[in-house]
Amino acid sequence: MAHDEPLYKSLIGDTTAYFTYLLLVATLGPFQYGFHLAELNAPQDVLTCKKHSLQQAALSTSLPHCISMNTAQFSVVTSIFTLGGLIGALSAGPSCNRYGRLLTMRVTTISFVLGSAFETFASNIPMFCFGRLVSGLGCGAAIVVVPIYIAETAPPKQKGLFGAFTQISINMGILVAQLLGYFLSKGNLWRIILASAGAIGLVHLLGLFLVPESPKWLAEHKSPQDARDILRKIRGHKADIDAEVKAWNIDSTEDDISEEEALLSAPPGSHPGPNPKAATASIGIWDALIRPAYRPATIAVVAVMFAQQLTGINSIIMYSVSLLSSLLPTTASLLIVAVSALNLVVTTLCAPLSDKIGRKTCILISIAGIGTCSVLLALGLFFGVKILAAVATLIFVAAFAVGLGPVPFILANELVGPEAVGATQSAALAANWIATFLVSQFFPIVDKALGGQGKVYFVFAGFAVLFGSFIAYWVPETKGKSGVEEVWGRREARERME
Length: 498
What we know:
The chain is an all-alpha fold and about 500 residues long. The chain has helices at about 5-10, 15-25, 30-40, 45, 70-100, 100-120, 125-155, 160-165, 165-185, 190-210, 215-220, 225-235, 240-245, 255-265, 285-290, 295-310, 315-325, 330-350, 355, 360-385, 385-400, 410, 420-450, 455-475, 485-490, 490-495.
């Protein structure tokens, strides 16, 4: 790809209509994650009976218009979503390695539909919590398996670009939830917001029936020939796929494929066993944590995921309306819609950036911007400077979108070999969910303990300095590297593998 090639050509260079379809359908999973993160932000006061809309628009239903909650109860309802996400993330890695990427994605859609149904028809706090927990299960699994699926189906030269679509889709979900919240936070119309996620889950399930298994997983576990056929369909009949097939680490000549097909043939109704010429057997999360060959990569992706959350982005996604309402009582909800839209636009525009200047560089620029804006936001809220608080919020989200938003979802697939991707991704996303829980559960408590007025953002600025320093020291650059040995240094990586 030429250095001065226009963005639209980088988007369509090796991309077929079929791959575009796979990308759009797969990323409906991360869309759900963003949607459920933000769905309670705008309607919080109406949903919890703290505020009654002047326009008493309502659905014709026997369900209550609101569910009375205090701050602590609402924090539990918000944060229990992350508990489901943690469980989903921990289970998705082993599941997608053993049963395949496609089946795991299909199962997540069941959680989306059931969880949204319980939320929509909830009449009390326990039922609402159960719905949020089930929705979290699907979201936790989705943001593990979808980045893996994209990495294994995207054109090799555009993995960074299309890897960013995980975060783009999350941001789209956040924006849609905030828009619906802006217009439907009245009466009991907030239930429509929650029902929308279930409807999208049904569309997702139907769309997945036209999506194939990851060719890379299929080659390593079942049928190399079917894998080649699927990859050919994804890339187009004129594409040269030999280099990608070679990277699967199997002997895939026509004679060998026939031999492998015979070895892998099984009676109807049974599942073929692993491909005998596949790469090293998959490892579990525990192995990824304790084995010297994988520990550096696991530490790296866990640190980056902690940085993504503990620098404060979800304080804005989840609580910004209530946080800013005292300073901007009439425009807080509209400002958050603008913030969500900016997040989506900047993430989309910066999607090719990690392929140009590097993954690590994008993350460090992002953390520097977030840390600076945290200080400015704290000062704006503390001194009551409306314009400073508003601008700092906007730039904070834009800085997040440059690197810390999309890049962490790419790294787990580039820091380890294919046998450890599922385990490393699960460990990384488990860290992400734990950090998300800490922010969602304790942000209101810490904010109140510090006396409000934005002083909690000095804490987030401190985390930015801490994680920025560690990432600069520990995390290697992966841009342009052909494999794990080159990422970590060929001799050192080879010694660890041995």
